[in-house]
């Protein structure tokens, strides 16, 4: 894993936006795997401000809550439209977000097939403070593809501010097996509350207790963090 430590959240977001921009320049018709969450908001904002041309690309989001309508403000569909799609000068050709409504099994199968047909060139990831990636929570099966995951209490607590009164208990998410098929992975983490998860991912053993640790086995991962998120790394001391 290639590690880039920036002084501030803003600088880390700029470095992440630059890698996405470089990917578009090298391959305009790239397939991107995208994440939601507060970490990504400044990255999407920079891509919007810089008028990056996504018009030949296709995007695939990691996850969506179960039982949430795409039009609900709490949904990841809504997040993506609000922070990215509707604001871009040159939006992607297609944007896919897994479906949280309707037949769960059919939705899982449909998304899995879509990902198998369209290999992801660059997968963007955030990380939970319990080291989840996508919604693959501690204890997850590393061999699993798209599936329905029961959300941990710590994840629900962390996302409470965005959920209002809604308390979804499950999400549809890309599995670790889907994430590991991406040709390259960019993981971004900012803030001290991510420091433990970053240390576990980077310096801990590969274990499903810290799902992000599996990324040590991927051949092309770039990790961008700020000083605060680096504060528990031995090698950064
Ligand atoms: C979101 C996702 C999650 C987030 C993670 C960090 O699509 O898959 O794994 O990346 O929960 O979220 P923030 O950035 O809000 O701390």
Strand fraction equals 15-25%
Radius of gyration: 16 Å
- The oligomeric state is single chain
Give the names of the bound compounds: fructose -6-phosphate
- How many separate helices? 7
The arrangement of helices and strands along the chain is EHEHEEHEHEEHEHEHE
What does this structure look like?
The mean pLDDT is 95. The two termini are 18 Å apart. 32% of the residues lie in helices and 18% in strands. With 237 residues, the protein is of the alpha/beta class. It is globular and about 45 Å long. The chain has a 7-stranded parallel beta sheet, with helices on one face. It has a 3-stranded antiparallel beta sheet with strand order 4-8-7, covered by helices on one side. Strand 2, helix 2 (41-49) and strand 3 form a beta-alpha-beta unit. The structure holds fructose -6-phosphate. Fructose -6-phosphate binds next to loops.
Break the fold down into its secondary structure elements and pairings.
Layout: E1 2-6, H1 9-26, E2 31-34, H2 41-49, E3 58-61, E4 63-65, H3 76-85, E5 94-96, H4 104-117, E6 122-125, E7 147-150, H5 153-163, E8 170-173, H6 176-181, E9 184-189, H7 195-203, E10 221-226
Parallel strand pairs: 1-10, 2-3, 2-6, 3-5, 6-9, 9-10
Antiparallel strand pairs: 4-8, 7-8
The protein binds fructose -6-phosphate.
């Amino acid at each position: 894993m290639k590690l880039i430590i920036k002084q501030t959240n803003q600088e880390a977001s700029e470095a992440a936006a630059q890698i996405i921009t470089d990917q578009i320049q090298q391959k305009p018709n790239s397939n991107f795997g995208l994440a939601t969450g507060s970490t990504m908001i400044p990255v999407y904002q920079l891509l919007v401000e810089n008028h990056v041309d996504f018009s030949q690309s296709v995007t695939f989001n990691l996850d969506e809550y179960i039982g949430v309508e795409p039009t609900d403000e709490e949904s990841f569909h809504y997040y993506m439209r609000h922070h990215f799609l509707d604001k871009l000068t040159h939006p992607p050709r297609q944007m896919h977000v897994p479906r949280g409504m309707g037949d769960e099994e059919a939705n899982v199968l449909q998304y899995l097939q879509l990902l198998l047909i369209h290999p992801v060139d660059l997968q963007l990831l955030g990380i939970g403070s319990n080291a989840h990636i996508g919604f693959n929570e501690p204890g997850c099966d590393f061999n699993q593809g798209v599936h329905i995951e029961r959300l941990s209490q710590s994840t629900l607590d962390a996302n409470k501010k965005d959920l209002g009164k809604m308390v979804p208990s499950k999400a549809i998410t890309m599995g670790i097996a889907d994430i590991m098929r991406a040709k390259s992975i960019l993981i971004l983490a900012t803030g001290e509350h991510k420091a433990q998860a970053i240390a576990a991912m980077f310096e801990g053993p590969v274990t499903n207790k810290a799902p992000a640790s599996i990324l040590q086995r991927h051949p092309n991962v770039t990790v961008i963090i700020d000083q605060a998120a680096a504060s528990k790394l031995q090698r950064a001391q």
